Amino acid sequence: MKKSPPQPHGANGVSSRAKVLTIDTMNPTVKKVEYAVRGPIVQRAVELERELSQGVKKPFAEVIKANIGDAHAMGQQPITFFRQVLALCSYPELLNDSTFPEDAKSRARRILQSCGGNSLGSYSASQGIESVRQDVARYIERRDGGVPCAPDNIYLTTGASDGIVTMLKLLVCGEGATRTGVMISIPQYPLYSAALAELGAVQVNYYLNEEKCWSLDISELQRSVDEARTHCNPRALCIINPGNPTGQVQSRQCIEDVIRFAAKERLFLMADEVYQDNVYADGCQFHSFKKVLFEMGPEYSSTVELASFHSTSKCYMGECGFRGGYMEIINMDNEVKAQLTKLVSVRLCPPVPGQALMDLVVNPPQPGEPSYDNFIKERTATLSVLAEKAKLTEQVLNTVEGIRCNPVQGAMYSFPRISIPEKAVKEANGQQPDMFYCMRLLEETGICLVPGSGFGQKDGTYHFRMTILPPTDKLKILLDKVKEFHHKFTQKYS
């Protein structure tokens, strides 16, 4: 009888064998996922920070990160009232502390009474705490001039991202030419491309018009959907307004046109409205898709399917780490809605502190309450500084030969176009030229920006995305360094 060959042993004497999970046997859709705002540039920035802390000499004293919309990390101050209530909710013994204002205490008591066991540490209903959903519904009604909103159509989420991915999961089906296509703007926020890659859906690009301040042309939507129908089944249209990464604010007329287009082409509308308080440019105003939809009358308001999203992470709050958000669904089929509720229940519930924070955002201090004056002062100051930084960014970048920056009308980003000499394109050697540019910028100046190729752009054009969030003094340093670097880079490769 033939003996089996001896099994190879590892260093610890245990038999070694091939891994069950390898790069070849893992889920192939995950390998297609890319997320530029935390990609190679940012990983290198973290390494540079570590090297600086270890005393390694660099041509700069610090790394300035303008790669991600993380307001508090960039020095934006939290709203006092929000943090007071959250502190009281987290540690209810503080309710006996006389240093906290009475309106913060009464708000904390109300939130705690809505929690199981009067504790922020308990699970909530899967759709979210009912009293918070009621407050969100009332907020939407006020915002939209009285258009009714049912709390049952509100789903609290783990940031807006969670709601967006959940909706995409419901929409994706089919195989081959029947596979769901989802229309996303180019440039886009990489959450969308990453989620579509992971779900195996078809990304359907439509291009914003850079020459007209990143506006949205219906003719471009038509071209995109017609072309997509040759190889997939376009079922959803995603709009980010105000825009990320492009900082534009869509006009009311544009939103009407988009709604008519969605109705005509039978598309499910997804409105990402997380920057709705971040509007800076004269003549620009935020219009919610829901409000415009209902003002257009029953022909549209009773038929067009819409999911809209908001978050605690942006605007004047900047509370990214709490992962609070909501989505509202309009005209969803009842049987699908039951499936949506089932899907969110699998994850039990969104973080309860994030739900509490969302409640404060939609129901802040009111006139006559002790915290009102300070709340308005802090909110106004934060938004005013952002407006100043939006203008500063546009003005300085437009003084640089070879950089062209559209007005930052809203949100918290600029997406300037940069000219890259042909010699530099060749030296990039297979790397995206704007990635090569941004990596050189990081290594030489310590400025961390994200290449436009991570968001999508028209062939032959190059951009970078930067946030306007750094403190004004650091933003000025950043802009001056970009200006100096671009001049040197262009001279070197001309």
Automatic annotation (TrEMBL):
Positions of the Aminotransferase class I/classII large domain: 100-481
Organism: Takifugu rubripes (Japanese pufferfish)
Assigned GO CC terms: cytoplasm
Keyword S-adenosyl-L-methionine: no
EC number: 2.6.1.2
Name by which UniProt lists this protein: alanine transaminase
Gene Ontology BP term (one): L-alanine catabolic process
Pathway annotation: Amino-acid degradation; L-alanine degradation via transaminase pathway; pyruvate from L-alanine: step 1/1
Gene: gpt
Enzymatic reactions: L-alanine + 2-oxoglutarate = pyruvate + L-glutamate
Similarity comment: Belongs to the class-I pyridoxal-phosphate-dependent aminotransferase family. Alanine aminotransferase subfamily.
Record key words, sorted: Aminotransferase, Pyridoxal phosphate, Transferase
